[in-house]
Amino acid sequence: MRAVITGATSGIGKEMAVYLSQLGYDLILTGRSQKHLEQMQKALPTGVEIIALDLSEDRAPFQLYDFCKDKQVDVLVNNAGYGLFGTFDQIDLEDELHMLNVNIRALHILTKLFLRDFKKRNRGRILNVASSAGFLSGSLLSSYYASKNYVVRLTLAIYEELRRAHSKVTVSLLCPGPVDTNFNNRAGVQFSMPPASPKKVARYGIDGALQGKLILIPGMGVRLGVFASRFVPHKMMSAITYEIQKKKLK
């Protein structure tokens, strides 16, 4: 058994690598830091191959797929992603495009390429890491929220296509709330509510994906929040989200 994990050097991705290795999976890990990847390669109990890539670069998703395509991958975890905080007009456009390349473009490419292989073999699991933000609009993190909405809608659509085709391939969607990772440091904000443990979120996501479940929202409070948001008018929900995000300013 072999799993590919993007964004594997810290946070949820690192904890997923640890857990899948404990479950007996050989791993192919990618992230930007060669040093951190090498440390994980030495520390994990199963076979680990590494490839340092920046998925914001145009060729990087294709390089990762080419590295993996002949290695009988069973599980793809699209975990890499980050956010940028600020009003839409003030966020640097180049920074934003790099973020969208990681959050949307790389995930889209890898999902498509691996899904084609999985469907030919009629087995395989894809876990796309989104966020509870994927069900909302999010002022002050507008592009991040929008990118996670893309991941949510894409994954839901693929799930239905696979169901209609009676395929044994599964696709799952992990949508946590705040998690104690490096996300806030990179976005330049602080938590406005207690964060979840990345270890617990990672294990919840992997367990659900291996069971073929579609929507995975760890934490009863987050699940209730996502459910309740369906009944709130869009303008009101945007105003509420703005007030929540404003509290994150450092």
Automatic annotation (TrEMBL):
A single Gene Ontology MF term assigned here is:
oxidoreductase activity
Indicate yes or no for the key word Transcription regulation.
no
Pfam family of the protein (one)? adh_short
Protein species of origin: Ruminococcus champanellensis (strain DSM 18848 / JCM 17042 / KCTC 15320 / 18P13)
The answer to keyword Nucleus applying to this record is no
| Keywords noted in UniProt | Oxidoreductase
Q: Which family does it belong to?
A: Belongs to the short-chain dehydrogenases/reductases (SDR) family.
**Which InterPro entries is this protein grouped with?**
NAD(P)-bd_dom_sf (IPR036291), SDR_fam (IPR002347), VLCFA-Steroid_DH (IPR051019)
Q: What is this protein called?
A: Short-chain dehydrogenases of various substrate specificities
